[in-house]
Amino acid sequence: MNKRVIFNILLVLGVIVFYLSFMLTSVRTTNKNIIGGADYSSFCFVFFKEKHGFYFTLACLGIVMIVISAVFKYINARRK
C-alpha cells in the first residue's frame, strides 16, 4: 500500500472518531433524566466522566490520528 493512502485513511479515521465521540456524547446526554434539562455542564460531565472518560479518550485518539497524518503528510511534502 502506498504511504499516501495510509495517511489519508488515518486522517479520515481520525475525523470520524473525533466526531463520533461528540455524537455519542450528545446522544448519551439527551438520554439522561436531569432536572432543569441537559445543558453544557451536563454535556461536559458526560464527556469527561461517563464510562470513565471513554468519550474524551475517543476524542483524544481522533486528534492524535489527525495530527500524525498531518505531520507525515508535511514531512513527505518537504522531501519532494
Q: Note the beta-strand portion.
A: under 5%
Distance between the termini: 19 Å
Q: What assembly state would you assign to the polypeptide chains in this entry? A: single chain
Derived structural class: mainly alpha
- Identify low-pLDDT runs: none
Largest sheet: none
Question: Measured on Cα atoms, how large is the radius of gyration?
Answer: 17 Å
Descriptive account of the structure:
The protein has 80 residues and is an all-alpha fold. The protein has 3 helices and no strands. It has helices at residues 3-30, 40-49, 54-79. Helix 1 (3-30) crosses helix 2 (40-49). The longest helix is centred in the N-terminal third of the chain and has 28 residues, at 3-30. The two termini are 19 Å apart. 14% of the residues are buried. The model has no long low-confidence stretch (mean pLDDT 88).
